[in-house]
Predict the 3D structure of the following.
Amino acid sequence: MRQTIFCTINDEEKHLEVESHWTLLTLLREELRLVGAKHACDFGECGSCSVLLNGDIVSSCMVLAVEANGSDILTVEGLVNSERLHALQKAFLDHNAMQCGFCTSGMIMASYSLLQRISRPNEQEVRAALEGNLCRCTGYADIIKAVQVASRARR
Amino acid sequence: MHPFDYEKPTSLEEAGALLAQAEGNGCVLAGGTDLLLRIEAESIESHVLVDIKGLPELREIRFNADSGLNLGASTTLSALAAHGDVRRYYPLLADVSNRVGSARIRNRATIGGNVCVALASSDLPTILLCCDAVCHLWSSHGERTVPLAEFYKEPRQTVLEPGELLVRITMPAPGAQTYGVYHNLRQGQGGSINLVGAAVFATKVEKQLTDWRIALAAVAPTHIRAYEAEQYLDAEASGHVVAQAAAGLASQVAQPSDDIRASASYRQAMVSVLVRRGIEDVTRQLMGRGR
């Protein structure tokens, strides 16, 4: 069933035609070509498709596109401000907080959500916020460090 | 995912009509953290999903010292864990809600969904059982109430009739000196499915512990209360031997099965360990020392 939804994606208002069985991830990646959110586990386990929905971190593979009607969505692409990387993105680069990079946008969105709530998180708070964001190559030490560096950076 | 229709009613009557129209091929969609997985895995086929998140009365959380807690069925676990009254009067409910899945799951998953999926491995129903939770079921014929202790029939099976919706869960206000703990075992720290879970509650009245409640997860086809162990604790004076004996009684009502995660005999033995720890923790907290 085709439905029309209205939502704001990365500060842009959109009217979109979606199929009711599409996930939000399908809409973002296949229709809007916003491929920052990654398609990996498909059951809300790995965190690589994380986006913010009305300010809350969610797995976009576990939300239907039609459920996002009327919502405000932020993806990793929306963090860049006139070509300038967000402090988190810069810190991830500076501290080698990635290898293959597949988990990175999810890690950054979960960290962004954390910094919205706690501006200077301690290590334990970073670990708790990244619970459920899986990385299979870098390990977590540099990621946690990068989040803490970003939290201290002036934007 | 196979194609299906999606409807988002704005009233209970409309929701009821949509489900009736679907003639058994409709599913209620709340957080979707279980339903969408099952559709994806093709373990259920649904022609229409009826999204109940548009029903305002299902989102309410209200607390009153006389009537207790009223939880709208579509309250997310994050909202539950963050709510001031829940944290103050039902701290264990808030704490355990905050440990389900990850933040991304808790921002979507609802308390009504958690109860209605009827999986004996989930944590929260043990706490709700100890708090005497009552399910309020709505259908176009009216509303009825069913205590949570009578809500489950078997795995994935509840007393909900076709076209009936769980709209809210209520529970009485706790006693001034009621305390509860929850202990569980998972496969490693990140493992998300319970091997065994045990909630233990008691209330202190005139320097005595009474009204013991013990509820178990993942050791029977549905969540269960360990009534014999509770009655034994209510009748006996405190002591380590009593805690041990009560824990033994609790493990006798467990009917765990073997599966890929743990053997039945391990689960049975762990019920006894977790319940004993629970009894000791509750006693220490309320009486200031071990039993």
